[in-house]
Amino acid sequence: QSALTQPPSASGSPGQSVTISCTGTSSDVGGYNYVSWYQQHPGKAPKVMIYEVNKRPSGVPDRFSGSKSGNTASLTVSGLQAEDEADYYCSSYAGSKEVFGGGTKLTVL
Amino acid sequence: QVQLVQSGAEVKEPGASLKVSCKASGYTFTDYYMHWVRQAPGQGLEWMGRINPNSGGTNYAQKFQGRVTMTRDTSISTAYMELSRLRSDDTAVYYCAREKLDWGQGTLVTVSS
């Protein structure tokens, strides 16, 4: 059982927006602004899409955005494209350790 | 650009030990924590621990305490993760990650008799 809770699946049509949630506790998500989101395509290493709740590394499209409210963080993908279909994981700093969510499979219909 | 190059795939017998290396380039090795994360077949990501390459200080996930050792060699900008008393459920891809921002290519470890 993962420390952070994500929905197992999400979907949307091309051009639409989809939001994936990541729920933790005050000891992780709610306690620190160190939530990251990763995209993973089959057989590939994870790629960071968002770090420190809402920061985007260079090269990540601005269609990807992150936010946090209380113990729940969210990743929003706007203007869905076929290449966005992948697994998405959240993680959070939790005081000298890190915790991951169980992952969400995003399907572009 | 940042590169993390990991050692190659390994097959181990139950009870054996494993040591995976992660050679870093493109940045100052001692400036950033190195994390180790694993992913069992068809499963999610699991954090194993991290090492401060500057001090050598480590933090391990409770699950791996007593079985995992993370070290580094600053002279060659390389981090290591050693896992002992391997079991079949340790079969996974093991990743190193610089502050979880840049990731290695992964090392497939198969534990089987």
Radius of gyration of chain A: 13 Å
Helical amount of chain B = under 10%
Largest interface: A-B, 20 and 19 residues
Please indicate the percent range of residues of chain B in DSSP E strands (runs of 2 or more): over 45%
Strand content of chain A: 35-45%
Main β-sheet of chain A, in a few words?
A: 6 strands, mixed
Distance between the termini of chain B: 40 Å
Q: Give the helix/strand class of chain A.
A: mainly beta
Q: What pattern of helices and strands is seen along the backbone of chain B?
A: EEEEEEEEEEE
Overall pLDDT score of chain A: 96
SSE pattern of chain A: EEEEEEEEE
Helix content of chain A: under 10%
Question: How many strands appear in the DSSP assignment of chain A?
Answer: 9
Q: By helix and strand content of chain B, what is the structural category?
A: mainly beta
- Distance N to C terminus of chain A: 29 Å
Structural overview:
The complex is a heterodimer of chains A (109) and B (113). Helices cover 0% and strands 44% of the residues of chain A. The model of chain A has no long low-confidence stretch (mean pLDDT 96). Chain A starts with 8 loop residues before the first strand and ends with a strand. Chain A contains no helices and nine strands. In chain A, a hairpin with a 4-residue loop joins strand 7 (86-93) and strand 8. Chain A has strands at residues 9-12, 18-23, 35-40, 47-50, 64-69, 72-77, 86-93, 98-100, 104-108. By secondary structure, chain B is mainly beta. Chain B has strands spanning 3-6, 10-12, 18-25, 34-39, 45-51, 58-60, 68-73, 78-83, 92-98, 102-103, 107-111. The mean pLDDT of chain B is 97. The A-B interface holds A 2, 36, 38, 40, 45-48, 51, 57, 89, 91, 96-103 and B 35, 37, 44-47, 50, 59, 61-62, 95, 97, 100-106.
Give a quick rundown of the structure.
The complex is a heterodimer of chains A (109) and B (113). Chain A has strands spanning 9-12, 18-23, 35-40, 47-50, 64-69, 72-77, 86-93, 98-100, 104-108.
